[in-house]
Amino acid sequence: MMLETVIGLEVHVELNTEHKLFCSCKNRFGDPLNTNRCEICEGLPGAIPVFNEEALIPSVKTALILGCGVEEISRFDRKNYFYPDLPKGYQITQFYRPFAKDGKVYLPKAGKTIRIREVHMEDDAAKIVREGDKTTVDYNRCGVPLNEIVTMPDFRSGEEVTEFLEILRKDLKASGVTDGKMEQGSMRVDVNISVHDEGEEFGTRTEIKNLSSFKATYKAIEAERKRQEEIISAGGLIFQQTLRFDEDKETVEVMRNKENSDDYKYFPEPDLDDVIITEDFISEVRADIPELPSVRSERFVSEYKIREEDAVILCGDDKLADVFEKGAKKTGDPSVCANLLVSFTGETGKVPDAEVLIAVSGLLKEGKISSGMARTLLKELFENGRDPYEYIREKDFLMITDDGAIEEAVLQVLGEEENKKAVRDYLQGKDKVLGFLVGKVMKKLKGRADPEKTRKILTDNLVRRD
What we know:
By secondary structure, the chain is α+β, with helices and mostly antiparallel strands. It contains 15 helices and 16 strands.
């Protein structure tokens, strides 16, 4: 029987707010340790939390982006547990009445929809900082507003999880919900994973905590999948445990036996009122959400007929997507613009000006330069900032289409001693060497020869030698 992997996620997203969730301390990364804290952050006796309504805008945006229904009334609860980074002895969260439920996210590459069970608000814990043999608790992060996004167990591979996280991060960043800086802890992932015989009930799940990059999340899933498969194949049992992923060793390690919800002894937070979210407020927030990268990439595919993988790359950066759209509309050749931009960005990590893209695309469309020359020209124009038309005139960049000039180069190549073996191989039916000979001709003409004419003239001359 085939083994199947079942995965669900809990994604913690720190919100872009000026202040923390239940006090007036600054929500700011990078400040000196323990400079943004107060009696509420530290959980001192008698300190009363006050809900910061500033957190409602990014929270409702998150819910709408994920297609969730927003509850009119939600409330906070206490999740009780002890840990050195939790000075109150409990976390304020939304267990019984979360503010958003029942969403979904479509994954184009996987061709499936991931269901979102709920999104709830909660305050972040402090951060334990280890330097050598010294351990410090930094309360700057304690109380930072979080949204926890809880999915249904709809993933079946690390690839699906990675695609979901990439879409989620891009959309939340574009809408201003979060800065999405995983290296700073702005987005952290807990993975619930189980392995079972396909067609039977789900197996016992384990949880891998606090994964802070797409790469680490993928590798952690693979490590735990492999571990569970080996245990099951050997007739062993999986125990419900909380794990951590060692990135250096690429292995999972047991932290503790996993708790159930009863172990946290949840009860309603007595110091906070219900959260009321009106339809008017939801409408205002919805109007403030820009076209999301995931929506824009779908539009690019349907409207401009470009490849899905290209659309995803282009929409990963707002400026890149804007340059593409300007180029596509101006030139009327979206595929050329997409190919040039994806190639250029992949090589340089930069975004060219739309005017330069339009000029180069136009020259390519008119047949004045080859696709290879277009990529080179785009890169050179980006680096020197010159006017495209002035530059190609000065550098004699236009494509050679004169049959006589190309044939002269062809005859030189065919007559050179170093190429005689390739000529014999071609005449003996080894067609693959034609590309080698085309390359030699292109080199003679400094990459400026019309590729189609070069191939035809070369083939004609080879046939005459047969």
